[in-house]
Amino acid sequence: MTSSPASPEVDTWLSTLGGRGAAPAGPDPVPVSPDEAARRLRLLAVPAEDRAPVLATLPDPVRSPALWEALRHCHRTLFAESGPAPRDTVWPDAPARLGAAGRYFYVHLYLLALPTALERQRRLGVPETVVAATFADVGAKAATYRLAHGTGGFDRQLWAMRHFRGTLHRLGRLQFERTTRPAAASGGAPRRDGPAPGETVLDVHIPEDGPLTPGACDASLRSARAFHDRHFAAAPTARFATCSSWLLDDQIAAYLPPYSNIVRFQRRFTRYADGPGAERPVADDDILQFVFHTPPGTTDLGRLPRHTTLQRAVLHHLDTGAHWYRPTGWTRLP
Q1: Residues 105 and 189 in one domain
Q2: Is residue 332 within a helix (H) or strand (E), and if so which, with residue range?
Q3: Where in the sequence is the domain holding 196, given as residue range(s)?
Q4: Are residues 93 and 188 in the same domain?
Q5: Inter-residue contact 327 to 244 (CB < 8 Å)
Q6: So what's the pLDDT on residue 1?
Q7: Residues 28 and 155 in one domain
Q8: Residue 103: which of 164, 57, 42 has the closest Cα?
Q9: What's the pTM?
Q10: Is 197 found in the same domain as 108?
């Protein structure tokens, strides 16, 4: 790609990313050859149909200086010692005017960021199999984008910050993010047998690529504490895993059999009490995206398939005017 198309929308987006101001302290990205870029896309498990357009639109500091400078700012923010948390980072989706170069902008970022991220994993002694499984989530999210939008792109830029900063790893079926329990998590007083406010916990995330079988979840949970104690020895030991997901919405149990994988998964967790200040956000978009790969804001439920028990349950519940929620729960790590 050559220079980015000029427009007020593009100018605003570049300014928001900081591409026209002083960059934060941090490592700069380095231009890569097509062969090296292709190798990195394979490491990120980017789907084959996305690789050619990613390479064709990869910015260059000479041919596309504005986009390269934006990538430089994002790269420095990603690896800055005191960089903002993902939820506090402002990395909006690119304007449609940029076309594929905009839709793949954050794939370009993570492609360029891979060497720094891999070096961090190497210093921590993280096994190559775990590293590969962790970074393959970039490709998984690119595949989900295509299912939702019918074209190539990537819109999980804030989510992937965790992988590249080394706070999230995939261990078998589940992903674990090293974090702390907020003081006001889900409202209510902390339970004596649960995590205390501010305590280090491993937050569980569920990839979309297979059944949530009890055996696979058991294996992941068994490995989590030992993995983090071994590779993050200077960090406090985590006694608990937490999870914030529509999978913990107890309304699901009214639709699915008690032996289903989802119901058995949610029973692992003790939900925080619902009360004043409780964090129980509406999760209609979350469940529709997970089950049907729809983009946020989907309202035409009539066109969605109702082939599986879960699909029928999700849509029937929404058809009644009810909502799905995202409660938070905890479980003691084995």
Answers
A1: no
A2: strand 328-332
A3: 169-332
A4: no
A5: yes
A6: 46
A7: yes
A8: 57
A9: 0.93
A10: no
What's the pLDDT at 125?
Answer: 98
Q: Please indicate, yes or no, whether residues 13 and 158 belong to a single structural domain of this protein.
A: yes
For the stretch 182-199, pLDDT in tens is 655 555 556 778 898 889
Q: Encode 105-138: b = buried (16+ Cβ within 10 Å), e = exposed.
A: bbbbbbbbbbebbbeebeeeebeeebbebbbbbb
Give the Cα-Cα-Cα angle 173, 112, 44 (nearest 5 degrees): 25
| Res. 222: pLDDT tops 90 | yes
What is the C-alpha to C-alpha distance for residues 32 and 16, in angstroms, rounded to an integer?
A: 26
Q: Report yes or no on 182 lying in a domain.
A: yes
The letter for the amino acid at 251 is Q
Give the model confidence (pLDDT) of 197-210 as tens digits.
Answer: 889 999 999 999 98
What CATH number corresponds to the domain at position 262? 3.40.630.120
Write the CB contacts of 327 (distance below 8 Å, at least 6 apart in sequence): 186, 244, 248, 249, 250, 271, 272, 274, 279, 280
Last residue of a domain, one of 130, 165, 200: 165
**pLDDT tens, position by position, 45-64:** 999 999 999 999 999 999 99
Residue 200, SS3? strand
